Amino acid sequence: MFAVLSRTGRGSRRGRLLQGAAAVVVLLGLLVWWLLPIGPSAPSGSITFSTGVTSGVYQRYGSLLKEDLGRDLPDVSIQLKNSEGSQQNLARVASGKADFTVATADAVAKYQEDGKPGADRLRGCARLYDDYVQLVVAKNSKIHSVADLRGKQVGVGQEGSGVRLIADRLMTAAKLDPKHDITPVSAGIDTMPDLLEHRKLDAFFWSGGLPTGAVQLLWKRYDIRLVPLAPALVADLHASGEAASRYYRSAVIPADAYGDAQKVPVSTVAVANLLVTTDRMDAGLTEGFTRTVIDSRDRIGKQVHSAQLVDLRTAIYTAPLRLHEGAERYYRSVKP
pTM here? Predict the structure, then answer.
């Protein structure tokens, strides 16, 4: 009897030890599960962001955005690449030579309408800020409208820029032939101010955020003014039937856009800028990129005024582009 009880006691103790060991294993498993990262891995890799000319808003905005992207996406290497502007930016992204860029909505529509390579793969991430067309002349110039450009030497932007698109359309709307009624000078905002100052240009077009640094600097050393662009020009643009023209709107450059230099509001034409990528881009990386663009608005806006106009409520409207799935995921995550 005693021997039987003894064996039973030992078996009971062994069972309790096995149960205890099993419990420890379960607890350790739960601890490991809790400590290990779950969900998708953080974005990593290398991307190229195509910006703009060295003294333009695209380039300045891109430089500041890169700092925030480096903080929010530490495993992603970001390279900035200067460009002539929207048209070249779109060609780079569509062909895979860049991963993200900024381009105006009219340039996107033109790229699509012309059926250029990779147009069907372009996707939108965010509507950013508006570009304002600025027709700059010397203060004592006799040019007071687009029609007055006839026979003049006019800076029209570089070949791959969005400025070139809208300058040509505005002159056409004003009944001017952009190739024959003026002497077009292919130059960017990095050189046009100097050309105007040294009287090698009678006027130049620029389309960019407000204020544009190069125009601001020119105003400090040379007397200039902005030529009003009548709202009737926008009506003529819309009547042209071009798909791209529907993205233009009448706007006003505020009197204080350039501090005390300008003094009066100036009527003009505006068009939205879009953050663009392609359907090849990883959804997780695109989501993170879009999140940083929205979250960085206030910090970047202290140095680039245009960035203050990035608005979560309107960022989702990226027509004529479909939203990238990663950007769509971001907007859903912040939806009230």
Answer: 0.84
